[in-house]
Write a structure and sequence with these properties.
With 286 residues, the chain is an all-alpha fold. It is 72% helix and 0% strand. Helix 12 packs antiparallel against helix 13.
């Protein structure tokens, strides 16, 4: 009797819970929906109306104006620059990070624990503490105003968070697989490439997705190292709408902001299952 009563209460509360969740989702999505509606509004209506639907519909004028870009460079150029940096960062983090994680998780070498602890300490180090030394180094190398400072460090396994994530995932893979591969004549690289790398796919996808999102949304690093409009990324291009001509092109900026969200949305929805699997299984012994 008591069990049936509890069950009825839970079933009765489901519609209320669903309504609350829908209301919370609408509240969270309202700024994005308002920004989407503002892309079809004239300049003088954007901040004078909180309505999602424009009173005076301007069509795709803001999208056309925004895609033309700034300083003679189209926004398509900014998208290409962002994709170049994001893809380079993803490749660097996936390859270099997985190799480093494999070394920490499977290989026995001197001072392994000390090196792993030092790597973890770098997670707690604020980025601004190393900004000036890094800038001086890249300036001496002649890399300032190029994409190299934003890509090359990823090839050297500098993102300790993703290395730690993959180390925990590898530790959940049975060592018996390594032993069986070693019996068949596989060396360290063959075990990494043929055995562990395919099994690490959820962790690799998680690393790739987060690296892409964080690199795509990065503003501070790109602002520091990129100065030529031809090398601007999406984030710098959006900022340029506000001060390039000493007047704010809010409609064009909102239109390009909507377009800049699409790659992240598509990637997140397309790899959502592997992303959840990678996060859920990291650090769990199987």
């Amino acid at each position: 009797m008591a069990t049936n009563t509890v069950a009825k209460r839970l079933l009765g509360s489901k519609p209320i819970v669903h309504l609350l969740l829908i209301a919370a989702a609408i509240i969270m999505l309202y700024p994005i929906l308002w920004m989407l509606g503002s892309t079809f509004k004239p300049q003088n209506e954007i901040f004078t109306s909180a309505s999602l639907w424009p009173k005076a519909f301007v069509g795709f004028e803001n999208y056309t104006k925004g895609w033309s870009g700034v300083d003679g460079h189209s926004f398509g150029r900014f998208f290409l620059n962002s994709f170049t940096i994001a893809v380079g960062a993803v490749v660097g983090n996936v390859l270099a990070g997985s190799m480093t994680a494999y070394a920490f998780a499977r290989l026995n070498f001197k001072f392994r624990r000390v090196c792993f602890a030092i790597m973890l300490l770098t997670i707690m180090l604020p980025y601004h503490a190393v900004l000036i030394p890094q800038y001086v180094l890249f300036f001496k190398l002649g890399w300032v105003n190029t994409v190299l400072p934003l890509i090359v460090p990823k090839l050297l396994a500098t993102d300790a968070f993703f290395i730690f994530l993959m180390v925990q995932f590898i530790r959940g893979i049975p060592r018996e697989l390594d032993d069986a591969a070693r019996v068949d004549g596989c060396g360290y690289m063959a075990i990494y490439w043929r055995i562990l790398l395919p099994l690490m796919m959820p962790a690799l996808v998680t690393t790739a997705i987060f690296t892409f999102i964080w690199t795509w949304d990065d503003f501070f690093s790109q602002l520091i190292y990129l100065s030529s409009p031809s090398k601007y990324t999406v984030t710098l291009g959006l900022q340029a709408f506000l001060d390039a001509t000493h007047e704010s092109s809010w409609g064009a900026m909102f239109a390009m902001s909507i377009l800049s969200l699409l790659p992240i949305l598509v990637i997140f929805l397309g790899f959502q299952r592997l992303l959840v699997e990678g996060i859920a299984t990291t650090g769990i012994k199987r």
